[in-house]
TrEMBL record:
Domain Pyridoxamine 5'-phosphate oxidase N-terminal: from-to ranges: 39-166
Protein name: Pyridoxamine 5'-phosphate oxidase-related FMN-binding protein
An MF annotation (GO) of this entry: oxidoreductase activity, acting on the CH-CH group of donors
Keywords: Oxidoreductase
Amino acid sequence: MLRNRRAEFVRFFGTIRFDGKEDFMRSVQQGDLGLLQHPASQELLQSKIPARLAYVWTDGTPRVVPIWFHWNGKEIVMATPPKAPKLKALAKNRKVSLTIDDNTFPHKVLLIRGTARLEPLDGIVPEYAAAAERYFGPEQGQAWVNQLRSMVSSMVRITITPEWVGLIDFQTRFPSALAG
């Protein structure tokens, strides 16, 4: 059934090319941290697309916020001012999920679940400065960080070590509803 759906997809959208690594990555199950090595995951982790951080508010309702991130090769690192409302909720319940997805078909969607670690720091979190450079470019990123220094004297580093990873790329990895 999966092959039939893929064949329908190919007829409608065009040829899908697989190399040896993509064939291997198709066999990696959702939830496996090895999915972080998939080319589509690496592309999203290095992109200028903000992550969407999902967490549970103190009243039990779900929240999602866009947020810059830095991938250091093993963790997602974000930063926020110490008075950010999300910190109150994250201190109460550190279980989070985030997604990084693009807007170009065939869509790529990276899903990560983990536990947030909060660390107050003086000054600008270094990974935030690295993210600013990635999002804005070296000159404008540095200008933004310099401006931010005049607005905040400290930040809170939010680090998420992936505990579960999912990937959909509509080429080698389809949503479970299409997989049969």
